[in-house]
Write a structure and sequence with these properties.
The complex is a heterodimer of chains A (175) and B (412). With 175 residues, chain A is mainly α. Chain A contains 8 helices and no strands. Chain A folds into 2 domains: 91 residues, Orthogonal Bundle (Rna Polymerase Sigma Factor, Chain: A), CATH 1.10.1740; 82 residues, Orthogonal Bundle (Arc Repressor Mutant, subunit A), CATH 1.10.10.10. The relative contact order of chain A is 0.10. Classes of the chains: A mainly alpha (175), B alpha+beta (412).
Chain lengths: 175, 412
């Protein structure tokens, strides 16, 4: 159990953050992270543990995307039920309107990326090296740099387009 | 459900397990390779090849600068997805306690509410304090009620300040990991000593302020006189916190004063040389138009604090002059107010006209500004008559002149 303790302490937070950024749903992210570690428990010891964990988490996300709408609806109902029964669990107040808007823009911009680009970028943001990203996404390591450069450029360009459009509409002051 | 193991790979996918530089047909470094290089993924040999080309090729140098901007910008956008500080994202249950029966579906995971976040704890403290105030007021303890409420608000400020500090430290650590020099990406990032000190100072400031408020509240509770009670709200705590830190940590006194001045509405340069200390001299002061201001101020004797390794090598003296957006108002940070090049593609170059004594660069991926200075020669920095900061972003270039920079460094 020492291994799983160490794995959990070391990787649980990055995994949840990665999943949350990808899914935009904290409960689901935590559930998938939990599932990731449960599977790790079954497969210990792991050769390349970080790559393995992120790969499993990535696969869980992909599987989720493939589920039928009925299954997703069912999951949503389960979450609603949990939220209703745990009335004390409340989302924190947003710090500001600007931050909410920034988050919405970021979410929309990230969602516009191709799945592979998005995953590569989020994995890199979690500190995975090129070999680990390649392993997790099934890419050649030589293509990771190109994938990342494309993802970064597109993300920034899309985000800037959104910001400019907002400013042109005379939206909220960003300063 | 899949996920039992990493995805299956095509046999051909791993033909090139060793990263090689990709060149464009016209002999430049491919964009993907530039990102790979900036991500420090090449081995030493390949990195050296790119380095040798980039220093000679203006086009690739520009491409490197652009790539750095894209990296910083994309990181900022991804971080914007996090609507909570990283430390309070989750209180996940250890898998050993939720290991399902074989074949059983994984159960959804709930979070114990009191562990949810520091913010909620702060809110609870505030609510409890409000209730206490109402109760005490109802029992003709008007003065005591005021004091109690102030104390509670102080406690909230302390908790919130610590949470915010934790959040910002995490974000900065992540930024620091990615920030690489455009020309020498393999230069090891030194641990930002200023960050730790500032973070400690921030926590200390919040604590000190809260303690001061607590003492004042206690005093108010026994004195019927209308003594002004310091209100340490999250926003209002900043100047007071800065003042508290100033007395405890002389090395950062001027920085805190500059931040306080800025928060109080005094613009850039207004705090330069305003310290009561006769030794006070601004290290740099920049004006960036009517809406924006950047002020960094320190006494000459503070230089060693700003550049803690000055006496050690004197070859590369990175420092972290920390800035924080005014909206965040974390105590103990150098203020950068409305940095004008907030955006995805921003780079900042700091050069001195005349002798090549001081060079530096910084990224400004958002409001936060981090300056890193590098001294390529062993000459003493006794005066910086004029320094030009050129800030380039996607759609504008801003150039300002920095004056009144005086700083002396002991030579090894």
């Amino acid at each position: 159990m020492d291994d799983i303790d160490r794995l959990f302490r070391e990787y649980h937070l990055p995994i949840v953050r990665y999943l949350w950024r990808r899914l935009g749903d904290r409960d689901l992210a935590e559930e998938f992270a939990q599932e990731t570690f449960v599977r790790a428990l079954r497969h210990l010891p792991l050769a390349n543990e970080r790559a393995w964990l992120f790969a499993v988490a990535t696969n869980l996300v992909r599987d989720e995307a493939r589920r039928t709408s009925r299954q997703r609806h069912h999951l949503s109902l389960l979450r609603d039920e949990l939220t209703a029964t745990a009335a004390e669990v409340q989302e924190p107040e947003p710090t500001s309107l600007e931050r909410m808007q920034e988050q919405a823009f970021a979410r929309r911009a990230v969602e516009t990326l191709a799945e592979k680009d998005r995953m590569a970028l989020l994995l890199r943001e979690e500190g995975l090296d090129y070999h680990e990203i390649a392993s997790a996404l099934g890419l050649s390591v030589g293509s990771v740099g190109t994938t990342l450069s494309r993802a970064r450029r597109r993300l920034v360009e899309i985000h800037e387009t959104m910001v400019r459009a907002r400013d042109a509409r005379g939206g909220a002051d960003v300063a | 459900m899949r996920g039992e193991a990493p995805m299956s790979h095509n046999e051909n996918d791993h033909v090139d397990d060793v990263l090689r530089v990709q060149w464009t047909p016209d002999g430049h470094v491919g964009e993907g390779s530039l990102h790979t290089w900036l991500d420090d993924a090449f081995d030493a040999h390949e990195a050296a090849r790119i380095m040798a080309h980039v220093v000679e090729c203006a086009m690739c140098t520009a491409a490197v600068a652009e790539a750095r901007g894209l990296m910083a910008g994309s990181s900022r956008i991804v971080r914007a997805l996090d609507d909570l500080p990283a430390q309070v994202i989750t209180t996940g249950t250890h898998p050993s306690r939720v290991m399902p029966r074989e074949g059983a579906a994984p159960r959804l995971h709930t979070v114990v509410w009191w562990k949810r976040s520091v913010w909620q704890a702060a809110a609870m403290v505030l609510i409890a304090g409000g209730a206490t105030a109402v109760w005490v007021r109802g029992t003709n303890g008007r003065v005591l009620a005021t004091a109690t409420a102030d104390r509670v608000i102080s406690d909230q400020a302390q908790v919130a300040g610590e949470a915010e500090t934790i959040n910002e430290e995490t974000q900065r650590a992540r930024v620091s990991e990615r920030r690489v020099d455009a020309v020498t990406p393999r230069v090891a990032e030194r641990a930002p000593a200023g960050t730790a000190a500032t973070t400690t100072a921030a926590t200390t400031a919040a604590t000190t302020t809260a303690d001061a408020a607590e003492k004042a509240a206690s005093k108010a509770s026994v004195s019927p006189a209308p003594t002004p009670t310091p209100r340490a709200t999250v926003a209002g705590a900043v100047p007071a916190a800065a003042a508290s830190v100033a007395s405890a940590e002389p090395a950062t006194e001027a920085l805190k004063r500059s931040m306080s001045d800025a928060l109080a509405g005094r613009g850039a340069g207004s705090s330069a040389g305003t310290g009561a200390d006769a030794n006070a001299a601004p290290i740099m002061t920049a004006r960036m138009g009517a809406r924006s201001a950047y002020t960094a101020e320190a006494r000459a004797s503070d230089c060693m604090a700003l550049f803690p390794d000055a006496g050690a090598t004197n070859q590369q003296l990175p420092t972290q002059l920390r800035g924080t957006p005014i909206g965040t108002r974390a105590p103990g940070m150098l203020l950068v107010h409305d940095w004008p090049t907030r955006g995805a593609e921003t780079s900042l170059i700091l050069k001195q006209k005349g002798p090549d004594v001081l060079q530096g660069s910084a990224d400004s991926p958002d409001e936060e500004l981090t300056l890193r200075l590098q001294f390529p020669s062993r000459s003493a920095i006794t005066g910086l008559p004029q320094v030009t900061i050129t800030t380039r972003s996607a759609n504008r270039t801003v150039t300002v002149t920095v004056q009144s920079a005086v700083c002396k460094y002991p030579m090894p």
